[in-house]
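Tutorial handout. Part one gives the primary structure; part two gives the three-dimensional structure as tokens.
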Amino acid sequence: METLTIVNGDIYTPTHFGHGSIVIQDDTISEITTETHQRAGQVIDASNCLVIPGLIDGLIHGGGGCDTMTGEVEDIATITRAHARSGVTSLVLGISSGSMAQINTALKAIAHVVDEPVADGARVLGSYVEGKFGSLAKNGAQNAKYITPPNFEEFHAMWAAADGTLKVISVAPENDENFQFIKHLATYKTDAYNDIIIAMGHTNATYQQAMAAIDAGITRATHTYNGMSGMHHRELGAVEAVLSHQNIHAELIVDEHHVHPFWGNNLIQQKGIQAVGLITDCTELAGVPPEDWQASATYIPELDAYKLNENAIAESDTAFEAGTTEKYVRKGAMWLDVGRPTERLAGATITLMEGVRNVVNWGHPLSDALTMATLTPAQNLGIATSVGSIATGKTADIVIVDENLNVKTVILRGKLLKT
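Part two.
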């Protein structure tokens, strides 16, 4: 049995434990103690550092220069490595709207990595079908051509392709007649669907529809505020249902572009840290230094944006309908079709550790920010018995950071990650 001991660190479990040591036996945390003397086996001195749980990003679309939709196993592996280096040890990989062939190919590649984890990569908890069953009125960056109402034919095809690893399915409840789809999944999710999470997203639902859908079985809100009806002083929508219903977990994109800190704080204050999960909704640029991606991009001064040349297409009135579009990076976020009528946000470029840093800068205690990036998402995803906090008997996914949350060391499933 291999022993690894972290000594002299200021431990957050995610609540503040204080200075002490963590003993790891193989891949499991065996002891957390205030003692600081060295133990047998490998020792890591975390003096002047914070020791925190590995972060859990509940919705990403890429990283390390790769996208989740390519259908290539090696691309998924690259994504997991990029996020692991940034202190994210568990991931849910997003699936955008596309043809069923493209979606199913992507689901198969993700399932392969779920079943055969990458040794030096973050654990893939499963896939997250985000836009396929959304609303045309709130499609955002999702390709409208392939959006359909929730239906069992396409869902079961996706479920088969994912081989039981489809973790989250997002729907626009107003398109689910009598909530038949939602109710079926909620009824049989344990017996037939591996405890799948039913989310509400890319929705134009009224407040009443959204509240009823949560009562019918929805337990998660896809990137709250974004692609969601509401935020009007006379007409309530899905946003207000998420704010007011106690039985729904609210994802919050924390790059400060998708959601202004004022509204991010509002969500946290209204729902509490036990019901808000920090996410990035990040693109392939997460974990890629700006100088690397800028080398193959074109800066357009009049747009104050970088156009990503490898994704560019000739301008055409039918470009969006054809499923092709132009990607840009502007002021730290990914955008599509900048300067055109179809201009819209398309994802973040940060990793979750940067997002945690943002939330701390909003005025939240580090323990609260960490809770929303570790234990709270673990509880919603049904994995809190094994990950999401530093506790005896749990998997040793641990990150050592400096006081500014810069990653110094990552311990992944009990093994020191070499970067």
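Part three, for discussion. The CA atoms of residues 359 and 365 lie 9 Å apart. Residues 100-115 form the longest helix (16 residues).
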